[in-house]
C-alpha cells in the first residue's frame, strides 16, 4: 500500500513537471496576434497571403490543424459592392481562445461588443506572449485590420477611399490602412482611441517604416475559422 501511494506521488509529480514544460500553445488555441508580419509592410500578399502567414505561424506553434483566417477587410469598390470582404465574415462563429486557453469571445457579435474579453493581457501572439503596447519600446500596438468598429469594410468615399493598402498588396510610400490598438490604449480615452480594430489609419504609406512610425509593425489578428 505504501509503495502504491509512493508510485502515485511520483507519477503525479512527473505529470506536473511535464505540464510545466509544455508550451502555452499546447492548448486548443483559436486566436492570436502574429508575432511578426511577412516583413513587407502592409503588402501581405492579399488576403490569401495573410491567411498563409497565419497558417504558417500556427503550424510552427503546434496549432496547425485548424483553418486559419486573417482578420482583414477589403476595400469596397462601390456602395453596393457584393464582392467586398468584411473581416467579421471571415473568421467563423467562435468561440475563440488565446494561447493560454483564455476565452476572448464566444461569437462574432460578442467579439464586436463591450462584452468581449479583449485586453493587452489576453490578445497574445501565437507563442503565448504579450505584444508591446503604447508605453513600451518598440511600440507595436497598431494592428492591421482595414475595418470599421463592427468588423465591416469601409465604403469607397473620401476620406476612406482605401483603408486596406490596396487590398493588402501595397508595401511602399503610397496608401494607408486602418489599424486597431490591441492594448486598448491611445492618446485619449475615447472609443476610437481604444478600439482594438478601428483606431486610426496608418500615416506616410504602407511600408514597414511607415507602419512603425505610427506605432505598428505589420502585425494582424488571426482567428481559427474551423
Automatic annotation (TrEMBL):
<dbReference type="InterPro" id="IPR016186">
    <property type="entry name" value="C-type_lectin-like/link_sf"/>
</dbReference>
<dbReference type="InterPro" id="IPR016187">
    <property type="entry name" value="CTDL_fold"/>
</dbReference>
<keyword id="KW-0732">Signal</keyword>
<protein>
    <recommendedName>
        <fullName>Lectin</fullName>
    </recommendedName>
</protein>
<feature type="signal peptide">
    <location>
        <begin position="1"/>
        <end position="26"/>
    </location>
</feature>
Amino acid at each position: 500500500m505504501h509503495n502504491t501511494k509512493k508510485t502515485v506521488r511520483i507519477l503525479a509529480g512527473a505529470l506536473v513537471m511535464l505540464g510545466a514544460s509544455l508550451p502555452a500553445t499546447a492548448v486548443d488555441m483559436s486566436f492570436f496576434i502574429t508575432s511578426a508580419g511577412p516583413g513587407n509592410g502592409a503588402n501581405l500578399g492579399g488576403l490569401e497571403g495573410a491567411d498563409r502567414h497565419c497558417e504558417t505561424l500556427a503550424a510552427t506553434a503546434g496549432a496547425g490543424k485548424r483553418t486559419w483566417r486573417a482578420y482583414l477587410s477589403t476595400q469596397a469598390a462601390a456602395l453596393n459592392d457584393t464582392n467586398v470582404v468584411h473581416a467579421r465574415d471571415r473568421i467563423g462563429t467562435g468561440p475563440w481562445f488565446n494561447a493560454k486557453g483564455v476565452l476572448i469571445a464566444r461569437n462574432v457579435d460578442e467579439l464586436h461588443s463591450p462584452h468581449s474579453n479583449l485586453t493587452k493581457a489576453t490578445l497574445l501572439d501565437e507563442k503565448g506572449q504579450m505584444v508591446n503596447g503604447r508605453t513600451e519600446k518598440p511600440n507595436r500596438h497598431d494592428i492591421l485590420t482595414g475595418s470599421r468598429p463592427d468588423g465591416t469594410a469601409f465604403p469607397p468615399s473620401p476620406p476612406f477611399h482605401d483603408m486596406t493598402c490596396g487590398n493588402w498588396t501595397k508595401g511602399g510610400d503610397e496608401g494607408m490602412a486602418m489599424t486597431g490598438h490591441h492594448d486598448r490604449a491611445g492618446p485619449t480615452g475615447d472609443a476610437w482611441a481604444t478600439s482594438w480594430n478601428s483606431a486610426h489609419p496608418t500615416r506616410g504609406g504602407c511600408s514597414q517604416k511607415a507602419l512603425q512610425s505610427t506605432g505598428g509593425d505589420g502585425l494582424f489578428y488571426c482567428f481559427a475559422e474551423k
